[in-house]
Amino acid sequence: MESRQLLIETMSELMWERGYADTSPRDVRERSGVGQGSMYHHFPTKRDLAVAALERNVADLLPAVSELDGPGDPMARIEAYLMRPRDALKGCKVGRMTQDPQVREDPVLLAPVARAFAQVHLGWVKVLRAAVAAGELRTDLDPERLAHTLMAVLQGGYVLAIAQQDPGPFDAARTGVLELLRAAAPATTDDRHKMGE
After folding, report:
1. How many CB atoms lie within 10 A of CB 107?
2. What is the pLDDT of residue 73?
3. Would residue 197 count as lying in a domain?
4. Rounded to an integer, what distance in angstroms lies between the CA atom of residue 121 and that of residue 65?
5. What is the pTM of this model?
6. d(CA 94, CA 116)
């Protein structure tokens, strides 16, 4: 791997582990084995390297989101995305950056994070609209609001898991939201008869 890519990959991992503020150029050099001259040739500042690393983290996130637009019925895609394996104790590579004050306060560093969440939101809205159109979710549900809810459940699940150092709360949150989605399916004729309609 060339030194530029090695630096980006190393910064990406360190930012995921420690955050931007707690990652120094020296940390990156020591872990990557890339010399100082080479590092500053490719990235004159820590911020330049961080932007490249954030772009990489976003690129890592988006292929998984594209699964929402893949084959199969919409609810099956939603369930597969919600339940796919994740390391809950490491958190989200992109979402973690919102907890770093230096990232939050720097529009250049925050931009890739905001853009990633906007793209994820669009993916959710699209599959939720498809689920409504397919009759898998009720028509009175707002896909825009529901997309925010699903994103908040996943991100909040990471926070709870990390706080308790236990993946259980993350798994419970995503299973719970899936149960809520199933409960939001339109009532069938049989269901209405059972309720005495």
Report:
1. 8
2. 93
3. no
4. 9
5. 0.85
6. 8
pLDDT in the model for residue 194: 52
Provide the sign of the torsion angle of the four alpha carbons 141, 145, 148, 154, taken in this order. negative
CATH number at residue 122: 1.10.357.10
Q: CA 191: distance to chain centroid? A: 36
Please indicate, yes or no, if residue 193 is contained in any of the structural domains: no
70 domain-assigned: yes
Provide the residue type at 79 as one letter. E
Two structure tokens written together for 106: 């720097």
d(CA 12, CA 6): 10
Token reading at 160: 């709870």
Query: What kind and span of H or E run contains 52?
Result: helix 46-66
Give the tens place of pLDDT for each residue, 25-64. 999 999 999 999 999 999 999 999 999 999 998 888 877 7
Q: How many domains does the chain have?
A: 1
Query: Can you give the residue range of the structural domain that contains 143?
Result: 3-186
The CA angle 47-52-54, to the nearest 5 degrees, is 90
Cα distance between residue 137 and residue 79, in whole Å: 13
- pLDDT at residue 187 greater than cutoff 90: no
Answer whether residue 88 is part of any domain.
yes
